[in-house]
Amino acid sequence: MPEDLAAVKRRIEELRAEIRKHDHYYYVLNQPLISDAEYDRLFRELQELEEKYPQFVTPDSPTQRVGAPPAEEFRPVRHAIPMLSLQNCFSEEEFLEWDRRVRRLLGGRQPVYICEPKLDGLSVELVYENGVLTVGSTRGDGYVGEDVTRNLRTIRQIPLRLLPLNGKAPRLLEVRGEVYMEKEAFRRLNREREEKGESLFANPRNAAAGSLRQLDPGITARRPLKAFFYALGRAEGITIRSQEELLAILSKLGFPVNPLWKRCESPEEAIAFYHELLERRDELPYEADGVVVKVNDFSQREALGEVSRAPRWAIAFKFPAEEATTRVLDIVVQVGRTGALTPVAILEPVEVSGVTVSRATLHNEDEVKRKD
What is the pTM of this model? Predict the structure, then answer.
């Protein structure tokens, strides 16, 4: 390679490394190191060099997050390790029964638990080969998801190339997490859609799922999506022995990790964390519908195994359904396409789970009479 081209390539690589660093500090750590104007200058220099020397453009360049043409459909992606669903529990008694079952299967030993907020978002898996993002998919049915790689690339928190760990990247890493939309961003998006006469999203999860499953990545890029990562599929070239270690390593590799997790030495500590988070539920910037409690030690997880598509080593301790009181202002009759008549209550607007509710279908006459 001629010396001038070698210098151009070196400069492009320097710019990419610099921009990746600033993306991580700005979007993941919320600690910007430079002004927006300085960042724009670096990004513009990289764009100009790549336009002039297209032979040096790579898929993991920061300039390649947006720009892919719309797809005709999402191709299926089979998960190498199934993305299992979780068992649910709805009371302290049910949770303690699960804890007793875990201890019994572990020969009476009390495991350490890691407790994390259960986000109400869309589960995804990212596959990295030699540190570079190659495939991103939705959970789907747990065995086969949809390829949404181009859309996931537009989420600025998601690293296109991993930060080096001890000077190198794992040969293969499958990372799992949740794409979500914060409550305030959801309200802002719905206001914008209302002004344009577009249909409104029902809730933040619906908005996140609809935004990620766009055939045009440009639409996804304009939506205020965020992500947290907390789980692992296959991993080669790296050894991780516990959930606590996994969360620390994910953060070092450049992934956003929810800071509201807690190590609990007993089921009582886990219950206390559940109540602490329940009290803070309305203050959280995102929708959370419970706490996920996981056995920390991966060797203990292996011993516990799974049952009917759910791991024995984790449980979702669900929050009670949110309720609100309002007044019925009117009842109107809605005529369906088939001519069916459905009574609809017009309500004094009230906010529930980040959504303003102003109408409710009264299709269940028996339930209405029971509550009267």
Answer: 0.83
